# Entry
Amino acid sequence: MKKYILTLLLLFNVGLFYAQEAGAGKYTIKNLEVNTPNSDFGGAFYQENKLVFASPRKGFRLIKDVWKQNGQRFLDLYEGVINENGEITDKQKLKGEVNSRYHEAEAIFTKDGKTVYFTRDNYYNKRLGIDNKGWTNLAMFKATINNKGEWINIIPMPFNNVEYSVGHPALSEDEKTLYFASDMPGSLGEEDIYKVEVNQSGFGNPVNLGPEINSTAKDWFPFVDGDVLYFASDRIGGKGGQDIYATRIKGLVSKPINLNAPINSASDDLSFIINHETRKGYFSSNREGGKGDDDIYSFIEEEPVNFKCLQIVSGDVRDRITESLIPGAEVVLTDSEGKKLETIITKDDGTFSFEINCETEYEIIGKKIDYTPQSKVFTTSNEADKELRIEILLGKGDIDFVADNNASDINNQTQDEGEDTKPEGLPDVLPDEIVRLRPSIYAVNIDPIYFDYDSSYLTKQAKDELEKVVDLMKKYPKMIIEAASHTDSRGPDGYNLWLSDRRAKRTVDYIISRGIDARRITGKGYGATQLINQCVKGVECTDAQHEKNRRSEFVIIKM
# Structure
């Protein structure tokens, strides 16, 4: 048996529809008059105004000339003239030795029109290649044109193999890189997209484009437009069957974007090509409403695909004193709301790397047992593909408190119920806005500021309460307070001190950002040294009980 060059009859997946993906572009499409009741598909721009595509050959029908899988005759490569309205006329078979007695399809031409790369059943020198299971796989060939307009000098690619398929060629803009699809050993899925260097001596070694582009499904039909790669895939999350995707292949590779309707449908959509200047192109589909099996559609791009602006942040984790690299450190990337985006455990080289968006605030936190965590907050620019460098230095026991050295140390204040010293300037009769927490400790009377577990970020509810602190400090312009932040007892003591200090710093920064003089507020983290219930280490408590200890209090130092 012979394996059909494009496996036209793919599984039809109905009922899977997904929301429109942002940045997918907008298109208007049209079914072409050149389509027949049989399978017409594929497309390659040739010369200034021609399209080359695959269609079952014409002429007298013979049994040996029919592909059993769909009952149609084998495919040949045809060319036609592109009219102003996108229609294809003057259809005729390519001249020369390109077309054989078996399938040909999916070609790409060099800009000078003198060389073509094309896909064929693995048939060469009048011999049909058969693998160890009795199948004929695809192979890719190269041909040149003579002065009569005939394609001659058929040469197989050096990486063809009877045991796997190679086909669907595409060329980079400078024609120094040839892209193709294959299920060769080392592929991530059923079929992957590869690239190979085109040089004076021939071709380099095939390189898999990797998991950023390829999936565990079938990825094929590549086409390159500048720094954008278009391809077809039946990966999870599509519209159904084969869908067309776009991704950047220069700079930072972007996540492939589904082109959505009307390009993609619940059926098979593939073989996308586009003219870089006119933004007009063609694709193929076997969707309902067509003229036959597979049809060729023209399209006009009204809005281009909009890829995310991406950057890279990388660095290493080192010991603050020895400057030696620290393997096994945990590096966490979070967004501005404290949501964990990605975590990396450093290997022997102590390095980390994250892909990030432009014009976005992030925080990187480095941690390891026996070390004090360190964090760095940064905001990316609008420059695409920029690489940022951040070094994380971890020390043992070197907590960086944000509290003023002259601030009152609440932990050292007397806890004897018989002694109670009011802060300077505090009246005997307390206003409603001030409350006595413990002996000698008076605080702003607001709802507690609680934090999520292992987080120092302020929730919306917390910010609402902080606005009450701001209002009170404006009401009493000589009031000086300390933001005392705490953790629950879970986690190492050193880490708890660091985390509570982070909570205090964020609290202080927010109040200062609301117009309060920085000299009127200090902050300090106390870790788990001032629990307000029985939830010490070793005592089983509920999450709600632990939460009561993850708090910030606003202690009045002076009125």
Notes: The two ends are 92 Å apart (CA to CA). The longest strand covers residues 310-319. Residues 26-303 form a domain with the Tachylectin-2; Chain A fold (CATH 2.115.10.20).
